[in-house]
Automatic annotation (TrEMBL):
The chain holds residues 179 to 560 of 968 of the full protein. The lineage of its organism: Eukaryota, Fungi, Dikarya, Ascomycota, Saccharomycotina. Homotetramer. This is ATP-dependent 6-phosphofructokinase. It is found in: Cytoplasm. Keywords: Allosteric enzyme, ATP-binding, Cytoplasm, Glycolysis, Kinase, Magnesium, Metal-binding, Nucleotide-binding, Transferase.
Amino acid sequence: KKRIAVMTSGGDAPGMCAVVRAVVRAGIYYDCEVYGCYEGYSGLVQGGDLLRKMEWEDVRGWLSLGGTLIGTARCMEFKERWGRLKAAKNMILRGIDALVVCGGDGSLTGADLFRSEWPSLVDELVATGELSAEQTAKYRHLTIVGLVGSIDNDMASTDNTIGAYSSLERICEMVDYIDSTASSHSRAFVVEVMGRHCGWLGLMAGISCGADAIFIPERPPSASGWREDLKKVCLRHREKGRRKTTVIVAEGALDDELQPITSQQVKDCLVEIGLDTRITTLGHVQRGGSAVAFDRMLATLQGVDAVRAVLESTPDTPSPMIGILDGKIVRQPLMEAVKLTKSVATAIAAKKFDEAMGLRDSTFKESYANFLDISKHDDGSQ
Ligand code: ATP
């Protein structure tokens, strides 16, 4: 029987539990054995109880849960060859030669590196007498399949990552709470959202919450003009009768000289136009809570496809990443997706902001333009 390990790695995201559930159950359905790898790559490196077989009933009730019940971690040992050597030994001793990883671009890069190194790791284990040639004979190739779990929606080549819509939902709930008090007192709120390098949460929260303005890293405003523009737009909305002001700031917001735009700077502008202004940094509430329906569905469909991809993989095909494009579950070459994702940061650093916008999900540019149109024509009703 094929033995597959499933792992969650990097930052946690709602929907990761649903991924593990789907991989365990689809694996059993397709006559495989599935091992849960606990605490990210530490589970592979340390082995023992951190790498154990999971049964159908072990994941009962996991579909809706937030976070990840098999744990996640940043594992420094796995970044070193000796750590990956220990991981390969632990896997071979259990007869595991396929790994489904749900994580961000770092986790997927590590997985692909592990796969490319695998034959040489096996040779080294035999040469040093850690394992015998017979023990390793059946395990000459490692199969890797990636799933993207990230609240930031920061992976290129897929429209959505698992967890992003749950996080967006949390942000909207929180802004709705803030809105009640903001309108009552006619206050302004600067709401800081997660997304150190990616403005998807900031942009979609701006649209979904009817914000007056947003600041995101992919579309930096003019360093010399953004303060005046912000004041103008907020004043215009107030003049039209709006009793509250909401500005969303992504934690990685920049101006076009690549200097950070902070919530405090935004607040200072709003105070200058006479608004009673508070800053709310949403922080880790954005990661918490149960997975919304979309993330449960995405995690389940992608988890099942990950098992199929394991069974269909050959030593010659590149590792796939399971994505979703235009509503269809698709397989993309994992390292190409990671490379494109990294090129967003490069484009921003080179001030090629249009290029950065284009590399986000397929609706990103259009959504931003629509946000501006709505903001321009805002009649104060929202
Ligand atoms: P997030 O987007 O939430 O930060 P991530 O998967 O990018 O998720 P990282 O901290 O970059 O998060 O990576 C998670 C783990 O993956 C690391 O702690 C390490 O164990 C492994 N990893 C990351 N990059 C590599 C690499 N280049 N080589 C080997 N392992 C890696």
